Amino acid sequence: MLFDLHSHTTFSDGVLTPCELVSRAVGNGVDVLAITDHDTLDAYRDTPLQQDNIRLVTGIELSTQWENTGIHVLGLNIDLDSDSIIAAAKSQSEARLRRARRIGENLHKKGVDGAFDGALKLSNGTYIGRPHFAQYLVNIGKVDSISAAFRKYMGDGKAGDVKQQWAALPKIIAWIRNANGIAVLAHPLKYKLTRTRLKRLLDDFIDAGGQGMEVVSGQQLPQQTNDMAQLCEQRKLLASCGSDFHMPGRHWAELGRFAPLPGNVTPVWEHF
Ligand code: AMP
Ligand code: MN
Ligand code: MN
Ligand code: MN
Question: Comparing C-alpha atoms, which of 20, 17, 18, 29 is closest to residue 54?
Fold first, then answer.
């Protein structure tokens, strides 16, 4: 059975609709798929969970911060109708809008005008994020690519990287658990933390009620997989895996295309 428990649609910053995403996942041999859009469950409002060739598991990717680093937590197998997760999505969406205004102000100070309005127009109204600002910067000719936009304006520590608006880590985890979901730390290697800080993050995550971590996130080195599996096993966390698919053409984040979980960890789906 192939589980891909991390993917995005047009309801956040992915380019495929839920229907297109599901077709691509089926084509790639995925048996169980979680759509985990950033801070929204809207994809599930128009996607049946029961499909002919694939099983969908509910999911969301919530943004928070830890020691001034932006952190993402997946809520898997949550009850879509729970008041807790509906409140979470509403609160995070409001936080996104506040944050977008701040990003606009910060970019204005850097000589970029109209960024908030520009990004809002490019967004779907619910999810407004750094990718929209990056696209706006490309559109007005400030930079010539999305990656340059992140490098110069939107990336970690740059003017457009506003983190302080999110709910705190314990609150994020409580929202997930109160909706009967499993809280999984997303892509631990992406935060580029030192070893000591990564271990501290995992300990704080567990103290706050976190239950799992992504041991495999897209294409990664076998050595990284073994390392993540060891951290996971030592802390008795549940192990998850997913592509973090956003769009076709990124071979390192393609639906279903990643190494299997090592045998020494407990897969998160044993608790679905
Ligand atoms: P936000 O949720 O608004 O903080 O935006 C973060 C999203 O921007 C991530 O989920 C990625 O999809 C995207 N992103 C982050 N860094 C880069 C980058 N260097 N190039 C392209 N997209 C990026
Ligand atoms: Mn994203
Ligand atoms: Mn993420
Ligand atoms: Mn993601």
Answer: 29
Q: Which domains does the chain show, CATH number per domain? A: 3-89+166-271 (3.20.20.140), 90-154 (1.10.150.650)
Helices and strands per DSSP (H, E), number in the chain? 8, 9
Nearest CA residue ID for atom 3, ligand 1: 129
Per-residue pLDDT of the chain (272 residues; tens, 9 = 90+): 999 999 999 999 999 999 999 999 999 999 999 999 999 999 998 788 888 999 999 999 999 999 989 999 999 999 999 999 999 999 999 999 999 999 999 999 999 999 999 999 999 878 999 999 999 999 999 999 999 999 999 999 999 999 878 999 999 999 999 999 999 999 999 999 999 999 999 999 999 999 999 999 999 999 999 999 999 999 999 999 999 999 999 999 999 999 999 999 999 999 99
**Closest Cα to atom 11 of ligand 1:** 131
For residue 151, give the ligand 1 atom closest to its CA. Answer: 19
Find residue 266's DSSP bridge partners.
238
CA of 1 to the centre of ligand 3 (A): 24
Ligand 1 pocket mutation pick from 13, 71, 247 by most atoms within 8 angstroms of CB: 13
Question: Residue 125's CB: how many other CB atoms inside 10 A?
Answer: 9
